[in-house]
Here is the input.
Amino acid sequence: MKLHEYQARDILARYGVPVTGGGVATTPAEARAIAEQIGGRVVVKAQVFVGGRGKAGGVKLADTPEQAEQVAGQILGMNIKGLTVEKVLVAEAITYEREFYLGAIMDRASRRIVMMASAEGGVEIEEVAKTNPQAIVKVAAHPMLGLLDFQARDLAYGIGLTDAKQARQFAQIAMALYRAYMDVDASLAEINPLVVRADGSLQALDSKIVLDDSGLFRHPDLEAMRDSSDEPEAEQRAREAGISYIKLDGNIGCMVNGAGLAMATMDVIKLFGGEPANFLDIGGGASKEKVKTALQIILSDPNVKAVMFNIFGGITRVDEVAKGIVAALSEVQTDVPMIARLVGTNEEEGRRILAESALIPAATLAEAAEKAVQAARAR
Ligand code: GDP
Ligand code: MN
Here is the structure.
């Protein structure tokens, strides 16, 4: 789950990262009022879940409250990379001399939290990694000991901070970023740019945090910050129904119980020359209602030319799933062919229920995949 800049900023502020204050506005008049409170020059920033807002015209400076109102009017409602700007952050504009990047990520290869810093701040780190990878300094935090002081200082020296006071402040900010990352169960936390002001002090001008969805249950306060504006409707529906759904680019919709079985199903579809339209795990003990929702989600994808059910009835009873499919089919208008391979607990009962429907039965996974690929090709 992504957080907005202002939300990430508030979290980092609690850990002692020097951030710019200001407030969030949804109308130009509100932006003006915030600018009046701040007094002096302000920066007005689009709050949308994309990087490169600056380049896209979503970050603008304003010298007066009138100007803040004017630029807020330009930015609010603006479309940045497909997202409409509904909120702007109005903050004190900072004059700076240098821009750095500082970030924390989960590095799967080393299985550690890696802290990265770069003297090429202000541009996206992916860009620096491509064009000038040696400009990125990295240290890996120990899983038990965490990020150690000397590592944080190494980052500072590594990006050329020779001034002892600045290096110390940079190290403190790196430690704070690491603590925040761990505490909120983030998968990414970054400050870009982290700038050096005229008086030599460091200041975070842009903060970004992405939370690990698997850790969200531990943070109801963060869950409450969710903004679903960039989440596709199907994914939002799936999340609310407790269904794991990931849209893919193929044309064979899959409804499966169990993540491992879902992966295997996708593999078998590919083996028979097809392309899965989605990953979907309805989970264990799925109810009729859930099956119906899952089918509606699958069919909401216009690319879907065939649907394949692969259900192994363990905790989930096959007859219950069959009832769900029948109930769904009676309510969902569709002529998309559907292939079902249902085995396990109560499978005879399940088959009997499905025999009265338009579903194409399959005895094995291979047969189901083959039929699904054929059906999708025929359309
Ligand atoms: P991003 O483009 O989405 O990463 O948005 P940022 O918040 O990083 O802003 C983009 C750029 O706007 C920064 O790299 C800065 O150059 C500039 N910027 C942002 N805040 C300020 C500020 O307070 N003062 C000044 N002078 N420039 C700023
Ligand atoms: Mn930025």
Summary: The domain at 96-223 is CATH 3.30.470.20 (D-amino Acid Aminotransferase; Chain A, domain 1). The chain has a mean pLDDT of 94. Residues 192, 206 surround manganese (II) ion (ligand 2) (CB under 6 Å). The CA atoms of residues 228 and 236 lie 7 Å apart.
